[in-house]
Amino acid sequence: ETGEVLRREPTVWATAERHLAHEDEPLPLALFQAGCPFRDWALAGLSGLGRPYRIAYTSASISGVLAAVTAGLAVTVLGRSVLPAGVRPLGAAEGFPPLPPASITLHRGGSVSAVAECLAGYMREGFAAEALSSSMSTGNPAILA
């Protein structure tokens, strides 16, 4: 089943700016719980490189994952737009594999109420406005479906 893509966003490896957790062997990871695509992408990418890793921290919340990363205890995988101050992306130059983009999609059941349809409309408008605002402030085109 496919949904309506509301937003696509680059996914990045992330580490604290003032720490070197990304250089540790095995690589310490702060990840979301099992079933999260970010977790799956991180583990598959590192396994594909044959890079040793250990899961140092697991959380169901982004604040929990970011607490471990900003403290310099681990590296994680997140959408680029949620990287806070003090956290920077990692890439091929540091030996990290590319990651697929994340998509936020809207899925519908068979019969949709008027209230649900109205909410879906607000969500569409919100993501479209955010993408437009982002592209205007950065000079980069918005990444939309």
Structure description:
There is one protein chain. The protein is an alpha+beta fold and 145 residues long. The protein has two domains: 11-101, D-Maltodextrin-Binding Protein, domain 2 (3-Layer(aba) Sandwich), CATH 3.40.190; 108-138. It has helices at residues 37-49, 62-70, 114-138; strands at 4-9, 11-16, 27-32, 53-59, 76-79, 87-90, 102-106. The strands form three sheets. The chain has a three-stranded antiparallel sheet.
Short key terms for the protein model shown above:
single chain, 145 residues, alpha+beta, D-Maltodextrin-Binding Protein, domain 2, three-stranded antiparallel beta sheet, two-stranded antiparallel ribbon, 3 helices, 7 strands, disordered C terminus
Give a short overview.
The chain is an alpha+beta fold and 145 residues long. Helix content is 32%, strand content 26%. It has 2 domains: 91 residues, Periplasmic binding protein-like II (D-Maltodextrin-Binding Protein, domain 2, 3-Layer(aba) Sandwich), CATH 3.40.190.10; 31 residues.
Task: Measure the end-to-end span.
Answer: 17 Å
Name given to the CATH homologous superfamily of the largest domain: Periplasmic binding protein-like II
Placed side by side, the strands forming the largest sheet appear as 5-2-6
> How confident is the prediction overall: mean pLDDT?
90
Taking the sheet with the most strands, its summary is: 3 strands, antiparallel
* Main structural class: alpha+beta
Uncertain stretches: 140-145
Strand content: 25-35%
Task: Tell me which CATH architecture of the largest domain applies here.
Answer: 3-Layer(aba) Sandwich
User: What string gives the helices and strands in order?
Assistant: EEEHEHEEEH
Tally of domains: 2
